[in-house]
Design goal:
This protein is mainly beta and 242 residues long. Helix content is 13%, strand content 55%. Strands 1, 2, 3, 4, 5, 6, 7, 8, 9, 10, 11, 12 and 13 form a 13-stranded antiparallel sheet that branches. Strand 7 (143-153) and strand 8 (158-169) form a beta hairpin. It starts with a helix and ends in a 13-residue tail after the last strand.
Length: 242
């Protein structure tokens, strides 16, 4: 009798197990990587393309790599690029000697004499925005950043700039050892011997500066030791009539 009960329970367990719905496997979303080149070589063994003079485009993220040579592995979705290199997305245009990209993770690492130009300003002008004041416009207007290395997540709009970052904006300059740009948070963090000089010749030196650029909530947070200079106008004494 006991054996019969155990067998019955065993059969019930198998029936429940077979009738259970198996967990659905997460399917990877398909997306397009577009390319335009003058010529290419393909290695069947390594699944690798060597492209010459052209562009590789992550269509969904509107990110484009242009170079004289791009090596792309279709299995890993990783690429390297060099020669007249330019990376662009909706936010920035980056030039440098070389680049490593992980298109699956949507990360590019740019090395050498890196120059970044913020290109959103062009789109803001096209929309004819009337608002002219504010830190966001101040940060974006004709802004050029230079450093030796940039790690950029172009989907999440997060960039890490390293090795003496120099930010110029017409006659204003800001220098820091590293900069973190959090685009979706409207926040820029500058750290390490931060030095600022504006168009009036006023200066500020500090260890850390955080710039918040969200519209209607724009401000700067500064950590010391803090020093600098203000330029003030001194009233001229009028000469007394004789």
């Amino acid at each position: 009798m006991k054996k019969f009960i155990l067998t019955l329970f065993g059969l019930l367990f198998i029936i429940v197990l077979l009738g259970a719905t198996p967990p659905e496997e997460k399917k990877e979303e398909e997306r397009e990587i577009e390319f335009h080149f003058t010529k290419a070589k393909y290695d069947y063994k390594t699944k690798t393309y060597v492209f010459t003079k052209g562009e590789l485009i992550d269509v969904k993220e509107k990110a484009k790599i242009e170079a004289d040579e791009i090596v792309y592995n279709e299995e890993t979705e990783k690429a390297t690029a060099k020669g007249n290199l330019k990376f662009t997305d909706e936010e920035n245009e980056i030039t440098a000697p070389s680049l490593e990209a992980d298109l699956k993770e949507k990360i590019v690492v740019v090395n050498g004499e890196v120059t970044i130009v913020n290109i959103r300003k062009k789109k803001e002008e096209e929309k004819k925005e009337e608002k002219k004041e504010g830190l966001k416009k101040y940060w974006k207007e004709k802004t050029i950043l230079k450093c030796q290395k940039v790690t950029y997540n172009y989907k999440d709009k997060i960039a890490y700039l390293e090795d003496k970052v120099v930010v110029t904006q017409e006659d204003k300059e800001l220098v820091a050892q590293k900069v973190t740009w959090l685009g979706k948070e409207d926040r820029i963090i500058l750290e390490g011997d931060v030095k600022f000089k504006d168009e009036k010749g006023q200066t500020m030196n500090c260890s850390k500066m955080v710039i918040y650029t969200k519209e209607d909530n724009e401000w700067i947070e500064i950590e010391g030791p803090l020093s600098g200079t203000f330029k003030v106008k001194e009233k001229k004494e009028s000469s007394s009539p004789k």
